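User: I'm writing a tutorial on reading structure tokens. Could you give me a worked example: one chain, its sequence, then its tokens, then a sentence or two explaining what the tokens reveal?
Assistant: Sure. Here is the example chain.
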Amino acid sequence: MTPRADPLTVEVVELIGTVVARYYEEYEHAAAEHSLTGAQARVLRLLAHEPMPMRRIAASLKCEPSNVTGIVDRLESRGLVERRPDPADRRVKLAAPTEAGRATAQRLRDSLDFAREPLGELSVAERALLKELLQRMLGMTPE
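And here are its predicted structure tokens:
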């Protein structure tokens, strides 16, 4: 049997799809509680890790740079994001979270209980194995 026809593989794929759908549903709900759209929350989450140019944000979110510009404009008008020159290339503008943006991103992250609660029921070894398996599925080198 090919992996596609294997009933276990089909079941795992369906379970992953269910987890992803529930995660996005919870993420959209959490974003709305912070008066953000899901897209705004995702941009703020990305920027909480490091400032980045619009094109890189667009590539990460798999959308058009013009969409990101509008999202960053709205976040900037709320004082959550600012544009600043890239120290490596002053022609490039980086979007970066403000202190309020970092705090909002942290509150948003803290409010996402959907994944945290079920994962808390797994042992440390089970969570480590799940992390490794997901990294392998994504073509990443497990840490």
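What the tokens reveal: The CA atoms of residues 34 and 107 lie 9 Å apart. The helical segments are 7-33, 38-49, 54-61, 65-77, 99-110, 113-120, 124-137.
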